[in-house]
C-alpha cells in the first residue's frame, strides 16, 4: 500500500472518529459537497487545504502523520521469555506497564492511582532495565514494543492473567450501556469455524487500532476489555445426561 493511500486512510479514520462529515469540511473549506468527495476519492489535497482540514479536526499535521503509522497492519510484539518471567513475578509492574501501553503517562498514573514518585520511579526503572520501555528525562516514556502485545500461550504470565483476569472479568452482571455479553453454542463446519476465528482476530485488531488512534487524537476514552474465545464444545460436557 502506497504512503499516499495510507495517509488518506488515516485521515478518513480520524475524521470518522471525530464525528466530522464531508458536509462539515465543505462548509469549512468553502467548497461544494461534490468537490470534497472528489478530493477524498482522488487524494489530491493541497497542503493549504490539508492544514485547514487538520484545523477543523482539531489536530496538528504532525499528529496526523503519527496516526498514519497506526493504520498500518502491524504484527503483535512478542515478549522475550525473560521479560515475561519478570512481569509474572512483578504483577504491580505488569499493571503499571499495561497503563503505559494504553497511553497513560507516569504523572497520570501517579495521580489516578495514588502512587508516590518513588513508587512510580521504581516501576519505570525496572521496566527500563528489562527493555520494555525507555525511561527518558522528565519522566517521558518510549515503548520498546508496539501497542499490541501477544504473550506465549504456555507462559507463566499467561496462566496468571487467565486465572486472575478472566475470572474477575466474567464475574460481572454486564449491565450498563458500555457492557455487552452473549454466550451461544452453534453447529458449523470446520472451515466455517476457522473463518470465524480469522474474522474475530481481524475485528479485535481493528478495535485495538481504533482505540489507539482515538488516544493519539486526544479523544477521551474509557478503558475496556473484550474476551473472545471459540472452541469445539457441547453443553452436555458440564451438565451431563444422568
Low-pLDDT residue spans:
none
Helix content: 55-70%
Indicate the overall shape.
globular
CATH class of the domain at 76-171: Mainly Alpha
Q: Would you give an account of this structure?
A:
By secondary structure, the protein is mainly alpha-helical. Among the domains are: about 5-70, lambda repressor-like DNA-binding domains (434 Repressor (Amino-terminal Domain), Orthogonal Bundle), CATH 1.10.260.40; about 75-170, Arc Repressor Mutant, subunit A. The protein has twelve helices and four strands, in the order αααααβααααβββααα. The chain has helices spanning about 5-15, 20-30, 35-40, 45-55, 60-70, 80-90, 90-100, 105-115, 115-130, 155-170, 190-215, 235-240, and strands at about 75-80, 135, 140-145, 150. A two-stranded parallel ribbon has the order 1-4. A two-stranded antiparallel ribbon has the order 2-3. A hairpin with a 3-residue loop joins strand 2 and strand 3. Helix 5 (about 60-70) runs antiparallel to helix 11 (about 190-215) and helix 7 (about 90-100) packs across helix 9. The longest helix has 27 residues, at about 190-215. The N and C termini lie far apart (about 60 Å). The mean pLDDT is about 85.
Amino acid at each position: 500500500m502506497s504512503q499516499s493511500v495510507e495517509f488518506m486512510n488515516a485521515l478518513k479514520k480520524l475524521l470518522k472518529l471525530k464525528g466530522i462529515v464531508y458536509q462539515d469540511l465543505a462548509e469549512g473549506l468553502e467548497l461544494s459537497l461534490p468537490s470534497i468527495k472528489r478530493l477524498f476519492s482522488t487524494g489530491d489535497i493541497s497542503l493549504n487545504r490539508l492544514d485547514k482540514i487538520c484545523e477543523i479536526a482539531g489536530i496538528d499535521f504532525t499528529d496526523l502523520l503519527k496516526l498514519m503509522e497506526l493504520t498500518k497492519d502491524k504484527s503483535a510484539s512478542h515478549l522475550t521469555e525473560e521479560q515475561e518471567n519478570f512481569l509474572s513475578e512483578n504483577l504491580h509492574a505488569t499493571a503499571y506497564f499495561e497503563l503505559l501501553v494504553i497511553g497513560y503517562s507516569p504523572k497520570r498514573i501517579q495521580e489516578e492511582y495514588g502512587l508516590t514518585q518513588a513508587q512510580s520511579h521504581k516501576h519505570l526503572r525496572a521496566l527500563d532495565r528489562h527493555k520494555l520501555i525507555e525511561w527518558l528525562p522528565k519522566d517521558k516514556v518510549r515503548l520498546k514494543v508496539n501497542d499490541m502485545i501477544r504473550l506465549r500461550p504456555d507462559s507463566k504470565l499467561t496462566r496468571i492473567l487467565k486465572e486472575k483476569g478472566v475470572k474477575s472479568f466474567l464475574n460481572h452482571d454486564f449491565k450498563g450501556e458500555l457492557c455487552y455479553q452473549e454466550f451461544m453454542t452453534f453447529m458449523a463446519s470446520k472451515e466455517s469455524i476457522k473463518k470465524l476465528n480469522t474474522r474475530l482476530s481481524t475485528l479485535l485488531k481493528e478495535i485495538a487500532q481504533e482505540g489507539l488512534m482515538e488516544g493519539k487524537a486526544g479523544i477521551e476514552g474509557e478503558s475496556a476489555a473484550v474476551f473472545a474465545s471459540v472452541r469445539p464444545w457441547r453443553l452436555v460436557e458440564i451438565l451431563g445426561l444422568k
